[in-house]
Design goal:
single chain; Serine Threonine Protein Phosphatase 5, Tetratricopeptide repeat; 2 domains; two-stranded antiparallel sheet; 19 helices; 48% helix; SusD-like_2; Starch-binding associating with outer membrane
Length: 477
């Protein structure tokens, strides 16, 4: 799908340190040039585009989570690849998530109520839940129940990660009620072109994702979510054609990765994933990775994460991402059919369904290969190989490895799943600065300490120090 992006001036909620005169402050800080009552379809288009850009873009993907998960590496300016960050370096997900995501999606809910169109409301809830999920997976405890309500809560409290997950599950269940394929149509939908049944599948896929996120900490809640999905008869994403993704257009609305490589050349593919794909004889190697510019013996050369000897690796003798990912129209995948199949396989492996875990695992690998256009012959050869077989005695190892591969490019989601499943067993960056440890979260934005200090301090007192190495609630080692 291609689209013309219509620029929109997004409203922003300015956090203030004053507790009085909230209505007056809110009025004074209105942008006189912004649209007072935005057109609902334009607002939906803008919210999807801006949040997808933040999710797939530089700060939250290429310069952090893709490095942590060792899909990508850096060949120049490699402080991020050595885990060197200030508390301002990782704030984009937070600021864009709240100002361009939550704020605009909350407005979309209000406009939907005014217009009596519950489908806009349901879509907004699904997208808002996804944005909140990205943020809590990255930071841990976040403002949730009081966020985006500046007239009532200038300094919102941080909800525990557990409460955020449970709240999102309730929101997504509510969204299912709002979404009605026989209801009023929607416009501005650049993901599913207004097909409400696919939004219902997207909502259920997110519920399944969260149900597994909490499975190691509260399996009874996981069971309850699965029972709800069964009772509702809700369907899930069932083909690659139903993947939740934003397919970009040409410049100036191209994929953020394509946009970056138009002007920069400081990123490479990690040696970790190149070596893994080569050892597995995985046909995705030539899709995920570009051949080196100069002819080399191995054709595909990854760069070790956090390397210290800059002279050892040359730009022309190391591999960029594959042309699939460098294309202007490459999609930003939010949740794929392959991920849904891996999740169903894990649910079966945990004994929480009667489905065939091994069969679903094989189907998941096939779906990922098909997603990238791999031939049926190559798919059959790969899934029949010893290296790709399911290990029933350690489902986390099998699913963890293949899911890590299938989530290539989806840095934030791959980072969350690697922490949850603990596979593959990654070795910290060569020049890592965390005393031999891996990053386990993002740092809170530095401005939170001054603008929302009391609630920030309460959050870290409950969760743990505001460090990259603090383990989050869902991450049970």
């Amino acid at each position: 799908m291609k689209f013309k992006y219509i620029p929109i001036l997004f409203s922003s909620a300015l956090l203030l340190s004053f507790s009085s005169c909230k209505d007056e402050l809110a009025d004074l800080n209105k942008n006189p040039n912004a649209t007072e009552i935005p057109q609902i379809d334009y607002l939906l288009t803008g919210a999807i585009k801006s949040t997808s850009d933040a999710y797939w873009g530089v700060t939250n993907n290429m310069n952090s989570s893709l490095l942590f998960i060792q899909h990508w590496s850096k060949i120049q300016y490699n402080d991020p690849d050595r885990y060197i960050f200030t508390n301002n370096d990782l704030q984009d997900l937070w600021t864009s998530g709240y100002t361009k995501g939550v704020t605009n999606l909350n407005k979309l809910v209000l406009l939907a109520d005014e217009q009596g169109n519950t489908n806009y409301k349901g879509v907004a809830k699904v997208l808002r839940s996804w944005v909140y999920l990205l943020m809590t997976d990255a930071y841990g405890d976040i403002p949730y129940s009081q966020s985006g309500q500046i007239k009532d809560y200038i300094n919102p409290t941080y909800d525990s990660q557990k409460d955020v997950y449970y709240g999102l599950l309730a929101d997504l269940k509510s969204a299912q009620t709002d979404l009605n394929a026989a209801g009023k149509p929607i416009l501005g939908d650049i993901i599913y072109k207004g097909k409400i049944e696919l939004w219902k599948k997207f909502a259920n896929a997110l519920r399944l994702r969260i149900a597994l996120r909490i499975a190691d900490k509260d399996v009874e809640k996981t069971k309850a979510v699965l029972a709800e999905l069964t009772a509702e008869g809700g369907s899930l994403i069932s083909t690659n054609l139903e993947n939740a993704q934003l397919t970009y257009s040409t410049s100036p609305n191209q994929n953020p990765i394509s946009n970056l490589f138009d002007t920069r050349d400081d990123y490479r593919i990690s040696k970790t994933i190149v070596d893994t794909l080569r050892s597995l004889k995985d046909p995705r190697l030539s899709i995920f990775v570009s051949p080196t510019k100069d002819v080399t013996e191995q054709t595909y050369i990854g760069v070790p994460n956090g390397f210290l000897d800059a002279k050892k690796y040359e730009l022309s003798k190391t591999s960029k991402p594959g042309t699939y990912f460098l294309a202007p129209t490459a999609p930003a995948v939010i949740i794929s059919y392959a991920e849904v199949l891996f999740n169903r396989a894990e649910i079966a492996a945990r004994g929480l369904s009667t489905e065939d875990a091994a069969g679903l695992y094989k189907q998941a690998i096939e779906a990922s290969l098909q997603q990238y256009g791999v031939s049926a012959t190559a798919i059959n050869a790969y899934t029949a190989s010893a290296a790709a077989q399911y290990n029933a005695t350690n489902f986390k190892a099998s699913i963890g490895l293949q899911k890590w591969i299938a989530l290539f490019g989806q840095g934030l989601e791959a980072f969350a799943e690697w922490r949850r499943l603990d596979y593959p067993e990654l070795v910290p960056a060569i020049g890592g600065t965390l005393s031999g440890k891996m990053p386990l979260r993002f740092l809170y934005p530095g401005q939170e300490q001054s603008l929302n200090g009391a609630n920030y301090k309460s959050a870290i007192a409950r969760q743990g120090a505001d460090l990259l190495t603090t383990r989050l609630w869902f991450d049970l080692k």
